[in-house]
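User: Structure tokens for this complex, please. No commentary.
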Amino acid sequence: MYNIPIEFYLVLSAVMFAIGVTGVLIRRNAIVIFMCIELMLNSANLTLVAFSSYLGNSIGQIFVFFVMTVAAAEAAVGLAIIIAIFRNKLNVNIDEMNIFKW
Amino acid sequence: MNLEILLFIIFAACALTAAILMITRKNPVISAVFLILNFFSLAGLYLLLNAQFIAIVEIIVYAGAIMVLFLFVLMLLNQRSEESILKNKKPFKIFAVFIAAIVLCQILYIIFFSKPSAGLDPQLQTSIESGTVQKIGHELYTNYILPFESAGFLLLAATIGALVLAKKKFE
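Assistant:
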């Protein structure tokens, strides 16, 4: 029935999370960093759905639904902030967003 | 080798390849397209896990709505290439990969140390029933009505916040 042990999904999710962490650290474009955060959220969602399916109750999937809602809100607000920064500095490179250092 | 394992390998390889290509491509638009490919592979994995509702929502909300928003902003903001910035940051990149490897080792240690499959008794019938639109909708409108309404309020607040932030003219 279930030929795949749940560890396969968990390891896949862990590797995707690590790729997301690498992306956040090596990329300098704020929008790409946002996309890497979405990747990390999705890897967490994969873990939740895997446990939900293997346990046979739907609470994990409801949680994933709320994570998606929060991700949508976060993307909207984050992109608005990026547009505001772009208006101010004319680029979205995070190395040049050091105004807090003054 | 049966079909379930074969499909898992195909979708997992597709998701990982898309994720790696996403963080290594210089052009942000190509990164966004690879992220959409990653979302589609994840939707396939969700279907493999009998989570039909989440699979469809993944495609509609993530690949359809959020990524279109990202692509709009990417194409709206005229950006210069990232290449010149990354060129003289080689030690920093190696350090970043090292940090990510440490995070991965920690998560893998937890996964294999805690033996998650030991207490699980997967039943196909309950698994299929738990992922249907009917079951999740019933749960959302009965037991989880307060979080559901809060999520709606959060989306309203995010809409207003995004509008205010994007309209405001910084001096």
